[in-house]
Amino acid sequence: MSRRAWVWIAFALVHAVVIWLGFTRDHAASWDVDQLYRWWAWRTWSGQAIPGITEGWVYPILAHLPILLVGAVGSVLDYTLAWGVLVTAMDAVAFAVLVGRGRSRGRLTAAWFWLAAIFALGGVGMFRLDGVTVPLAILGSLWLVGRPWLASVLLAVATWIKVWPAALLAAAVIAVRRRLVVVAGAAIVSVVAVAIVVTLGGSEHLFGFIGDQTTRGLQIEAPISTVYMLMAAAGVPGAAVQYDEDLITFQVTGPGVEGVVAAMTPVLVIGMLAIAAVGAIKAWRGAGFASLFPALAGALVLGFIVLNKVGSPQYMTWIIVPLAAGLVLVRRAWLRPAVLAVLILALTQLIFPFFYDAILTLVPAAVGLLVLRNVLLVALLVWTLVRLVRVPARTRRTVTGPAAPAAPEGVTE
Predict the structure, then answer these.
(1) I need a labelling partner for 376 at 20 to 30 A (CA). Which of 188, 204, 235, 315 fits?
(2) Is the pLDDT of residue 407 over 50?
(3) What is each CA distance from 42 to 80, 281, 317, 390, in whole angstroms?
(4) Mean pLDDT across the chain, nearest whole number?
C-alpha cells in the first residue's frame, strides 16, 4: 500500500475518533457548538436576532457562514454532528492539496504532523470556529507563491471568521514578493464583509468583536495568568479563580491584576509590531519566502497566543499552520518544534476537558499541567523568534568585486 493511502486511512480514523471525543463527557469539548452555535443559528434563521448585526457579538461577521450552514441542515443531522462533518470535509480538501501525489517527503511529514496535532488536541480543536479556519489557513499558506490572489482571499475569509489568521496575512504581506496582490485580495474580502454589515444595518457592531476582546480579564489558561494561578494554588490572599457570567469563562484575580489587564493589550500590539518589523527587515535584505514565511508566521501566531490575556484551548490549533508550512518548505529544521507542538496540544487536551475541574479547584498536579504547557508555549515562541532572527539574507552583488551567488530560495522538497 502506498504512503499516500496510509495517510488517508489515518485521516479517516483520526477524524472519526475526534468527532467521537466531541460527544463524550457530556459534550464538554463540543459545548460551544452544541449550545452557543446551535442557539445563534436558531436565532438567526428564526428571525429573532442576528449577532453582530442587531446586537454585539464576539466574532467577526463571516463567522455566520459555518454556523448558519450547519444550522440549515439541522433537520437532517444533529447540529454538533453536522459541525464535525463540515470540519472533516474542509480538512479533507486542504489535506488533499497538502498531500498532493504523495511524493514529497516534506508534504507527507506535514500531513502526518497535522493528523497528530488534531488527535492530540481532541474535540476542542474541531468543535470551535478555529476548526473551520485552520484548513482555510493551510490552503492559503500553501498557495501564497503560486496563487497569491486566491491565497489572500482564503486567509482574509478566515480572518473575518476568527481574527487570528490576520497574523498569517501580515506574514504573507511581508514575505511574498507579489505583496500588492495579497493586499488587494484581502482588501476585497474586507470591503465585502464591511458592506454586508453596513447594508444590514449593523454599523455600530462592525468592530464590536475587537472591543469585547480588549475589555476582557485574564483567562486562567493564558500564559500571563500562570503566576496568578500559582499564587491562588499557594493560597496567596486575594488570588483566586472567578467565573465571568457574561463571557462564560473563568478568569484570575489577585494583587495588581487590574494593572496587568490594562497593560496586556498594549504589550500584545507592541510585541506583534516588533516581530513584524524584524520580518520586514529580513524581507528588505532579500530573505527568501521559504525561510522567512514559516518563521515569521510562527512568531506572529505564537506571539498572538503568548502575549494574549485570553488563552482558550482552541487557540492551540493556530500553531498547526505555520509549523505545517515549515515542514513543507524546510522539513528537517522544523521537525523538533513540530514534535514539541504535538506535546503542547496533548497537554492542552489533558487540561481541557479532562482535568479542567481539577484546575478550577486548584489541585496542585492539575495546575502543574497548565504551568508546564504554558512554559512549553513560551519555549516554542523563543525558538521561532531565534529562527526568525537567523533567517539568512540574500547575498547582494558588489560593485568592486565579482558577483556573489544568490542564496537559495529555500529547501522545497
Answers:
(1) 235
(2) no
(3) 13, 49, 27, 51
(4) 93
User: What φ, ψ does residue 410 adopt, rounded to 5°?
Assistant: 145, 160
Residues 6 or more apart whose Cβ sits within 8 Å of residue 27? 34, 80
What strand order describes the sheet that includes 249-253?
218-219, 249-253, 240-244
Tell the residue number behind the cell numbers 542564496, with chain if given.
407
pLDDT greater than 50 at residue 151: yes
- pLDDT band for position 399 (50/70/90)? very low
To 10 degrees, the CA torsion angle through 339, 342, 348, 351?
-70
Q: What is the 3-state secondary structure (H, E, C) of the chain?
A: CCHHHHHHHHHHHHHHHHHHHHCCCCCCCCHHHHHHHHHHHHHHHCCCCCECCCECCCCCHHHHHHHHHHHHCCCCCCHHHHHHHHHHHHHHHHHHHHHCCCCCHHHHHHHHHHHHHHHHHCHHHHCCHHHHHHHHHHHHHHCCCCCHHHHHHHHHHHHCCCCCCHHHHHHHHHHCCCHHHHHHHHHHHHHHHHHHHHHCCCHHHCCHHHHHHHCCCEECCCHHHHHHHHHHHCCCCCCEEEEECCCCEEEEECCCHHHHHHHHHHHHHHHHHHHHHHHHHHHHCCCCHHHHHHHHHHHHHHHHHHCCCCCCHHHHHHHHHHHHHHHHHCHHHHHHHHHHHHHHHHHHHHHHHHCHHHHHCCCHHHHHHHHHHHHHHHHHHHHHHHHHHCCCCCCCCCCCCCCCCCCCCCCCC
Nearest to 305 by CA among 398, 384, 204, 364: 384
Contact present, 52 and 61 (Cβ < 8 Å) = yes
Residue 237, sorted as left (phi over 0), alpha (psi -120 to 50) or beta, turns out to be: beta
Task: Give the Cα separation of 97 and 290 in Å (integer).
Answer: 18
What pLDDT digit, counting tens, does each position of 19-45 carry? Answer: 999 999 889 999 999 999 999 999 999
Angle between helices 364-389 and 331-349 in degrees, nearest 10: 160
CA–CA separation, 134 and 316 (whole Å): 11
Question: Would you call the peptide bond into 353 cis, given omega within 30 degrees of 0 as the criterion?
Answer: yes
Query: Cell numbers 497569491 correspond to what residue?
Result: 148
Instruction: Write the pLDDT tens digit of every residue in 208-243.
Output: 888 767 778 999 999 999 999 999 999 999 999 999
* Burial class, 223, CB count within 10 angstroms (exposed 0-12 / middle 13-18 / buried 19+): buried
